[in-house]
Specification:
The complex is a heterodimer of chains A (113) and B (111). Chain A has 113 residues and is mainly beta. Chain A is built from no helices and 11 strands. Chain A has one domain: Immunoglobulins (Immunoglobulin-like, Sandwich), CATH 2.60.40. In chain A, a hairpin with a 5-residue loop joins β4 and β5. Chain B has a single domain, classed as Immunoglobulins (Immunoglobulin-like), CATH 2.60.40.10. Chain B starts with a strand and ends with a strand. The mean pLDDT of chain B is 95. The chains are: A mainly beta (113), B mainly beta (111). At the A-B interface, β5 and β10 of A face β4, β5 and β9 of B.
Chain lengths: 113, 111
Amino acid sequence: SAVISQKPSRDICQRGTSLTIQCQVDSQVTMMFWYRQQPGQSLTLIATANQGSEATYESGFVIDKFPISRPNLTFSTLTVSNMSPEDSSIYLCSVEDTNYEQYFGPGTRLTVT
Amino acid sequence: GQQVMQIPQYQHVQEGEDFTTYCNSSTTLSNIQWYKQRPGGHPVFLIQLVKSGEVKKQKRLTFQFGEAKKNSSLHITATQTTDVGTYFCAGKKSNDYKLSFGAGTTVTVRA
């Protein structure tokens, strides 16, 4: 299994600002995923980030709003841009190992006021 | 698109009793995975099922994958307070790298 850390663990931001969330893995992985989880809800995939290529976004999510970087095989960032209260959520990164099992970071709890 | 439906949404269980949560897909899956999320925590991988009709056990937890690879279940026997949390199933279609998560079953336990 992989050990994943995320920064920040939580933040309170004003609307109109941007927040960059970092995800660090203790081993090299090909696939990294970014999810959003509203309180009491399931996980919604935002995008898949592969090293050396553009991230692949799911329906309803666009690069201008959620730009993603993947500079190497152990690190990725997700930026939530021009935030509104509707962006308040928990943001989770995950990685997939060679057995196709996913391991999640601890999450970033974002509150937009 | 692929949808994975999960029921029930909530399960209130007396300690010591058994319960089952069910997962159904509108399409055939290549595999199905189960995760547990404790209150305030993040999802933790439990198991992956790949073969038609597969049954796997982890102590008091029994996981099944249907013959048609469209449904799955998680059965917990003799529920304990440590079983509290939300259990998610997540399915993957053939030739697809993405997991589609069910809505989750949130379990509370009465001592």
